[in-house]
Amino acid sequence: MKAFASFALCCALIAPANAAAIAQLKAFVAGTKTLSASFSQTVSSKNGQEKASGQMEIQRPGKLRWTYTQPYEQLIVGDGKTLWVYDKELAQITKRNQAGTLGSSPAALLAGSNAIERDYLLREVGRQGAVEWLAATPRKGDNTFDGIKMGFSANQLVEMELTDSFGNVTRISFSNIRKNPPLTASHFSFTPPKGVDVVSE
Description:
Layout: H1 21-31, E1 34-45, E2 48-59, E3 63-70, E4 74-78, E5 82-87, E6 92-97, H2 98-102, H3 106-111, H4 116-119, E7 120-128, E8 131-138, E9 145-153, E10 156-164, E11 169-179, E12 197-200
Parallel strand pairs: 6-12
Antiparallel strand pairs: 1-2, 1-11, 2-3, 3-4, 4-5, 5-6, 7-8, 8-9, 9-10, 10-11
Subcellular location: Periplasm
Main location: periplasm
Family: Belongs to the LolA family.
């Protein structure tokens, strides 16, 4: 199962560090213009588990860069209009319309506008250790994900849990989080390498 199938992800009003999850989400969204973090991802399905890790950067609105380094190399770049998925192992690039691909997915929440309460019903689901959790249920039935949980600590998104329509569960943990680092526009542009097939969808 390739990481893009479950690729996802969210994105500071200053809320108290120990505030409930919805207040922390709103603070995070309001104050985050750029974000970088390392991530580790586990996808659980009826076929077992697949682990992946890498680095992600976003620049709101609309720009994102996900680099998977383990167990295979894959680069996902969104420049606001086009989403490029470069699978180095297959030497293949997929080109998609970014808005149509991301829709109201968690990735769109991270890199998009402050529209989470328009697209999702939010509810608190409690505290686990130092992390406050909320559940986000899509208002539209055509969303890729049936259920989304987000965990916050000190007004930072530190964990996500995504359940898709097939029952697969993706858990993503973020570390080395940097809020509003300087990121250049060229960081979110992509030029296909020579000799690599490009498939448009």
